[in-house]
Structure formats: C-alpha cells, structure tokens
Amino acid sequence: MDDFSKIAIAAEEVVSFLKSKTNYKEVYQNILFQRVVERASRERGIAVTTEEIEAEAERQRREKRLEKASDTLAWLADELISFDDWEVGIRNQLLAQKLAVALFSEEVEKFFWQNSLGFEQVILYQLIVSNEKLAQELYYQIEEGEISFYYAAHLYDIDDSRRRRCGYEGKIERGVIPTDIAAIVFSKPTQELIGPLKTEQGYHLLMVEGLLPAELTTQKYEEILNNMFQQWLLAAVNTLVSSSQISPVRD
User: Fold this and answer.
1) What positions does the domain PpiC occupy (predicted)?
2) What is the residue range of 97's domain?
3) Nearest Cα to 155, choosing from 167, 140, 143?
4) Closest Cα partner for 147 from 135, 134, 138, 156?
C-alpha cells in the first residue's frame, strides 16, 4: 500500500472535506457522544483497566489474523494511526459498553418480556408479483398441487434475489412485519398458503414454515441494550445543546 502519511493534511482541510461530504455533523455528534460517555462514567466510577484494553486488542488481532507484532504495526501504519491511537479507540469502546451495561442491563430483560409479542418470529417464504390476476392464478395452482410454492417463487417473483432463494425470507420478527399482515401471518397454521395480499410492492403470497417463540438470545440482549443506550446518548446530547452548555454545529 502507498504511504499516504507522507503527505501532510491540515486539520482545517479535514474539517472542510467532511462538511463538503455532509459527514461533519455525524463526526461532531460522535465526539459529543464520547464527551457524554466520559462524564457519565466518571460520575458512576466506571473505568477501563489496562488488562481489559490488552485483552480486547488481542481479540481484534486474532480477528484480523495479525499473528505477529510486525503484522499489527503494518496494519496500524496502513490505517494511518499509531498504537496509542488504537488503544484509545479500544478504551473508548469498552468504556461505552461498560456504561451501557451499568445504565440498562436490568432494563433489557424487563423490556423484552413486556414486548415479547413483537419478538416472536416466523420462518417465512414470500412470493410477490405485480399483477393481481397472476397472483390469483398462482394461488390456485399451488393449492391444487400443479406447482410448488418454491418453484412458483423461483419463476415469478418480481425480486431477482428472492427468486434465487425460491421465496425464502428467513426468520422474521413480528415487530418488523406490517401490523395487518403480521396479524394474518401469525394466526395461520404452518405450511398454509396465505394471500394474495395487496401492498405498495404488489400482490403477496406467503407461507410460514415455522413459528418461533420469543427468545432473549445474547444477540437480542445486546441489540436491545445498544438501542436503549443510543437513545439515551441522543437525549443526553440534545439536553447539552438545548441548555447551551455547548455550541451547536455551525458551518
């Protein structure tokens, strides 16, 4: 890789470029997020140890397959950052994670079970066509066993990717399906053909392969925790701006 670090770029040029690409607000906001994290962590006595930073650095090295110290240094040089810069980034990441857990770990499970209906899942197959008559014809052909749902989706679906998957949409949570369609999908027996249902996309034929109860997996726990933390960060930054403790972004 070329050594871009040999070419000096002034801080003002970086800021000007970010503004021209409309990325400046995002960077500015992330800096404010970090300020909020630092202050809230100090108030709660939350800190990150050297051992924790080293353990996370080692995990990232394994993930990136940086087996030797020279590999790590070469990667850092290619990213135009120093070892200290990297460790600061790791420390900030771990600090935010610790603060999120301190603030919301006890709320995640409560939120999940209060909203468990929305976390139920279906293993869903879907076929969408643009023509109502075709949708009706396919419905009757599938019902009569003249063609399988999967082959019909492979032949007729309006989406190339879904055609290749023979209509397979995967595991879908109730909460991400439009309410009126979810009410139908989650009330029907598995393997029963549903539709045609009309939306802005076209005419849908649906089939549920399986129903999955709500489960608070590690991934779902972290997703809910992160969403709560991000909402809290946004509210905290908005409070700072509105109370004039900092200046809003200006060009």
Assistant:
1) 119-210
2) 4-115
3) 167
4) 138
